[in-house]
Write a structure and sequence with these properties.
mainly alpha; 10 helices
């Protein structure tokens, strides 16, 4: 029962990966292209808060050694991918009026894939507790994913992917949440796996921010100015994700049922 509910929730989360479709409208599309460099910086703020949350979850589930070690491992893996894989910068036809320092969208997608596996595990555990905890966890994941998927869409577009390619890759990566669903269904102990995946994903997002997005913003400032706008975008992105995490926690702790109090014989005598 809880696996089926978690699967439905996972499909709803996958649907949020297509939220970038709203930018197919002429007006929103023109606005996005005009401010895409600043939107990429806004995404850096979102990713910083996501990385903090994932690192905190890794420490909570696996302790400081596993948590910190997995974050460092994730950052090292992303840096290795950067050096081993050739840098690709896709061009999609129209002229660009924004700065082009290289952004590798593949590292964002890999980090998100690991994050999604962890979300799948979380949803199964939440629905196994009870339906209300599962629904609350789903709402939290949906809201976080909506903001994150829009941010990833901006990053992929700034990396040079076409609108269609960005949406397709986001949808394909979002499907990794199903891996978490099936893993949580068939494996008994997942605390260490959640810690490891969360930490690696956190390190991956930090690598994207400090290796790609922030250098890209600095390059844009040197080329076109707008330092205050980039700082404001970074703070808005971080503030929006912080507000979501406070208002809608990513995971809900099950509420312990009250233990019925058995009256003592003395109390029964007094009542009689």
């Amino acid at each position: 029962m809880h696996t089926g509910a978690a699967l439905i929730a996972a499909l709803a989360v996958m649907a949020t990966s297509l939220v970038g479709v709203i930018f197919t409208s002429a007006r929103l599309g023109a606005w996005m292209r005009r401010y895409l460099t600043y939107l990429a910086t806004l995404s850096a703020g979102v990713f910083l808060l996501i990385a903090y949350h994932l690192a905190e979850e890794a420490v909570h589930e696996g302790g400081w050694i596993v948590g910190v070690g997995s974050v460092l491992l994730g950052a090292a893996l992303m840096e290795g991918i950067h050096w081993l894989l050739p840098t690709k910068h896709h061009h999609h036809g129209h002229a660009h009026d924004h700065a082009h320092s290289p952004i590798d969208g593949r590292r964002v997608l890999i980090s998100d894939a690991l994050h999604n596996v962890g979300d799948g595990i979380l949803l199964v555990g939440a629905f196994a507790s009870n339906i209300y905890v599962g629904i609350a966890a789903t709402v939290g994941v949906l809201l976080h994913e909506a903001v994150q998927e829009i941010s990833e869409y901006f990053v992929l577009r700034e990396a040079g992917y076409s609108h269609r390619d960005a949406l397709t890759r986001n949808l394909m990566v979002s499907a990794t949440i199903l891996i978490g669903i099936f893993a949580a269904t068939y494996l008994s102990s997942l605390g260490f796996i959640v810690a490891l995946l969360s930490g690696i994903a956190a390190g991956g997002f930090l690598s994207v921010v400090f290796h790609d997005l922030l250098p890209h913003a600095l390059h844009s400032v040197r080329t076109h100015g707008g330092a205050y706008a980039h700082v404001a975008a970074l703070l808005i992105g971080a503030g929006a994700m912080f507000a979501l995490q406070i208002t809608f926690p990513h995971e809900e702790e099950p509420v312990d049922e009250e233990t019925p109090v058995i009256p003592s014989p003395q109390n029964q005598d007094r009542q009689n």
